[in-house]
Amino acid sequence: MQSIIPPLIALVLKFAPELDKRIRSFLNPTNDSWRVDETYIEIRGEWKYLYRAVDSEGNTLDFMLSAKRDGKAAARFFRKVLGAKHTQIPRVITVDKNAAYPVAMDELKEEKTLKAETQLRQSKYLNNVVEQDHRNIKRIVKPMMGFQSFNTARRTLRGIEAMAMIRKGQVKGISRGDSVAQIEFINKIFEVSA
Questions:
Q1: Are the CB atoms for 126 and 119 separated by under 8 Å?
Q2: 33 forms bridges with which residues in the sheet?
Q3: R_g (Cα) of the chain, nearest Å
Q4: pLDDT of 13-72, one tens digit each?
Q5: Would you state the torsion angle of the CA atoms of residues 117, 119, 120, 126, taken in this order, to the nearest 10 degrees?
Q6: Would you list the domain boundaries of the chain?
Q7: Are 35 and 101 in contact (CB under 8 A)?
Q8: Are 187 and 194 in contact (CB under 8 A)?
Q9: DSSP track, 50-94
Q10: In terms of DSSP bridges, do strands 60-66 and 46-55 run parallel, antiparallel, or are they unpaired?
Q11: Within a 10 A sphere around the Cβ of 46, how many other Cβ atoms?
Q12: How many other C-beta atoms lie within 10 A of the C-beta of residue 74?
């Protein structure tokens, strides 16, 4: 069993980012009500931050692994989400009480990356959609008992998040729970004959 693990890890590290990249153009558009939060990921015994955003229906907008949890990291994450082709400018962004989010919002509004009308709601309880969505990622990451490097974590999480988007039915023409269509889609984008 031990001899299988290193090649398997190499495959995950190679194809996880590629899967994430290839599905992006097939994603359905999301709505303009965002839920944003961060969760902790262990890397070499230290906690790092996985920023995640979903819309009000639970569809993944984007994610970003960060070493820090501050206004700069939050602003960088918002820029990444705003740059995604399947997202739209938010009408409202719901976050928890983290002080970094108002700082990031002010910065983005000042540089006109975000509309001045975009509302920031700081509410612990309205963010349950993204909190529940963290559980799916944690369920997969927890048995790994942490990552050995930041790069390994970043690459692996890209694959985990991409598969979660496919399973949620965010890909055009594929319904939630249609595992046959999901497998056919992955075979198609990697040009694998069944």
A1: no
A2: 92
A3: 17
A4: 788 999 999 999 999 999 999 999 999 999 999 999 999 999 999 999 999 999 999 999
A5: -170
A6: 5-189
A7: no
A8: yes
A9: EEEEEETT--EEEEEEES--SHHHHHHHHHHHHH-TT----SEEE
A10: antiparallel
A11: 11
A12: 28
Structure letter (DSSP) for residue 194: -
126 Cβ contact list (under 8 Å, min separation 6): 35, 94
Q: How many angstroms from the chain centroid is the CA of residue 57?
A: 15
Exposed, middle or buried by CB within 10 Å (0-12, 13-18, 19+), for 118? middle
Which two tokens mark 148? Answer: 């050995």
Asked if 54 and 130 count as a contact pair (C-beta separation under 8 A), the reply is yes
Percent of all residues in the chain with a pLDDT value above 90, rounded to a whole number: 76
Q: Which fold has domain 5-189?
A: Nucleotidyltransferase; domain 5 (3.30.420)
Give the C-alpha distances (Å, rounded to integers) separating 157 from 58, 65, 75, 166: 18, 8, 20, 14
Packed helices 150-167 and 179-189: angle between N→C axes, nearest 10 degrees? 130
Structure-token pair, residue 118: 């975009």
